[in-house]
Design goal:
The protein is α/β, with parallel strands linked by helices. The protein is built from eleven helices and nine strands. Helix 1 runs parallel beside helix 3. The radius of gyration is 19 Å and the shape is globular. It starts with a strand and ends in a 9-residue tail after the last helix. The mean pLDDT is about 90.
């Protein structure tokens, strides 16, 4: 059984964590499969990339049985989060269940998070004697806020829906009887109605702002490129002709 399934269908990249027996804990080989998918899809002009899991949990973070034998120069969670943030297209995290440890940061690095009311979060770093990576703490503070970040990382508390609702962690909640994949398709329909250059440019600018790394010159060049794009002209023409625009990412 493949523990990570990466396929591209209907112009969407889908990464499925597929080892429910261990709550989709990510092994070192799984990281390589995930990172190779992001690398492979560079330049594909995808509408979006969707990350989800199978079973009752989204992901329980690093596979701890391999943790004692770690030999990496850089934390693999940090690497996959950077791959997500550097993606050419939006990344949606469809949380089919709880997220624990590094999986919380993976979700935080995505553009949109979709969940149901059973969602819970926990980061047991302090319980394991681990000082979490600063980049991960920055992602948490930006989206969860300072108080919730301290509860998750310093106290190791489990956070449930009543607390999650007080943060910006979940962008879209499922309706009764609706799956996170079905909800994701609704978000995809919105993305497909918008100009790819504008979406890609603004998501990069937003990411730079959050990471305190905004290059104003490059951001202005992205603004200029969109104003001069074929898609912008098409949008104006579509308004005059009272029809939906047909964007080409040009």
């Amino acid at each position: 059984m493949n523990q990570v399934i990466a396929v591209c269908e209907n112009n969407v990249g889908l990464i499925t964590l597929n080892n429910p027996r261990i709550h989709n804990a990510i092994k070192m080989n799984d990281f390589e499969l995930m990172r190779s998918a992001f690398l492979r899809w560079k330049g594909y002009k995808l509408d979006a990339i969707l990350i989800t899991g199978t079973g009752k949990s989204f992901c329980s973070g690093l596979f701890l049985d391999e943790f004692d034998r770690r030999s990496w120069d850089k934390n693999p969670i940090s690497q996959i989060c950077e791959d997500i943030e550097n993606s050419d297209c939006p990344v949606i995290c469809a949380l089919n269940g709880g997220a624990y440890g590094g999986a919380v940061e993976i979700a935080l690095s995505c553009d949109f998070r979709i969940a149901n009311s059973q969602l819970s979060l926990r980061v047991p770093a302090a319980n394991l004697g681990i000082h979490y990576e600063p980049t991960g703490l920055i992602r948490a503070i930006n989206i969860l806020g300072l108080s919730m970040t301290r509860r998750l990382f310093l106290l190791g508390q489990s956070i449930h829906i009543e607390d999650i609702l007080r943060t910006d962690f979940v962008d879209f909640w499922t309706e009764e009887g609706e799956t996170v994949i079905e909800k994701s398709k609704q978000i995809l329909s919105f993305l497909r109605n918008n100009a790819p250059l504008a979406v890609a440019g603004m998501r990069k600018t937003i990411s730079e702002i959050l990471n305190n790394s905004l290059d104003f010159y490059s951001a202005e060049k992205r603004v200029e490129a969109c104003f001069n794009s074929v898609d912008h002209k098409e949008a104006l023409l579509a308004i005059k002709e009272k029809r939906p625009p047909i964007f080409k990412g040009l």
